[in-house]
Each structure stands twice: as structure tokens, then as C-alpha cells.
Amino acid sequence: SCSVTPCVVSQWSAWSGCAEPCKATFRFRQRHIIQEPRNGGQACPALEERAGCVDYWTGQGTECTQSLIPALITTGGFGRARKKRAAADGKERAGYCVEFQLVAITPGCQHSHHSYTHWMWYLREGHTVCVECQHPALDPRSQHCSGDGTGSKKNELLHWRAVGNPRCQGTWRRTRQLDTCSCPSVHSFLFI
């Protein structure tokens, strides 16, 4: 018989884990061919799909080293509200500030419509931004904020993500650590 038989594929498998721990990488899912197309039937679609992911835990179940984890940032204005709450316990340690040079920024940063995400509009490639590390984001054991780039190599590209808009993220290079920030307010941020 010469009947036209289209390709038939299975359902997608479950997503895999991240390809590698402790870095921005990918996960994938697969499906397989149940029936090959015959006599000019419709061809088979893609059998694998990939999506981005970051896994914060190593295969042995220990937490990744800090410098590989994307920094999560929000506006410096949030810190003024947060300081009042944190100061109540009296044991607050002085924080520090890290300067970064923005290298890449996703277009999603320009599509932030909520008033609390307007700060993302000011992010520009090449600009220097200041990010404060202060209590309670400051880890009392390591004395660092997660994602602050401590231990990264010179000129290493580090990942950051804006809190409140998952489509706004990018990479930056750590330039230096200071006791206090000196950036204008539109370029002053906080580690979450």
C-alpha cells in the first residue's frame, strides 16, 4: 500500500537536571519516534529541547562556591527600609560595597512596567554600578554576600539577576570592593 503515514512522536520526557552544577547552564528533555513517516508523510519534529538553569548544589549535596551563583540585586532604596528593621538587633556588622562593570544586559530590563522595576531602565552596558552588601544578606560565617564575586578571577564574567523581573539579567565584572558606595542612586543596588 502507498498510504501517506506521518511521523508520530512520544510525549516529552521529564526535564533533566542541570548539565553542570554551580554555573548557568542548561537542562533538556527528549521524545522519541514511535512511527517513522512513510510515502511523503509529515517529517518528524525536534526530538530534544533545552532550557537554561542554575543548580546551587554540587552532586555531593554541598552548596556551590559563592562566586558562581548569580548575584540577586534590587534598588538601594530597599536598603533604607531594611536597615531600620535590621538595626533593632544591635549586632549589625558594617557591610561593604562592590563595584562592577556591566557587560551584558538582557532586553527584558527595558520592559519593566511596574513602578518598583523602573530602576532597571537605567542599566547600560559598560556602566559601573555599586552593589551594597549589608545585613541581613551578609552571611555571618563567610562575611560575604552571595554572588559578590569574591574569589572570582580577574575579568571573569559573573552573572546577576534583577529581583522582581526574571527577564532582566546579565553579566558583569567585579572591579573592586570598597567600604562605602559612591555611585549615583540610579546605579546603586543591594544584594538580596
Automatic annotation (TrEMBL):
This protein's UniProt keywords: Disulfide bond, Glycoprotein, Signal
Domain Spondin-like TSP1: 7-54
Pfam families in the record: SBSPON_C, TSP1_spondin
Residue ranges occupied by any SBSPON-like C-terminal domain in the UniProt entry: 91-185
Gene3D superfamilies (alphabetical): Thrombospondin type-1 (TSP1) repeat (2.20.100.10)
Top-level taxonomic group: Eukaryota
InterPro entries referenced in this protein's UniProt entry, alphabetically: SBSPO, SBSPON_C, TSP1_rpt, TSP1_rpt_sf, TSP1_spondin_dom
Name of the protein in question: SBSPO protein
Organism: Smithornis capensis
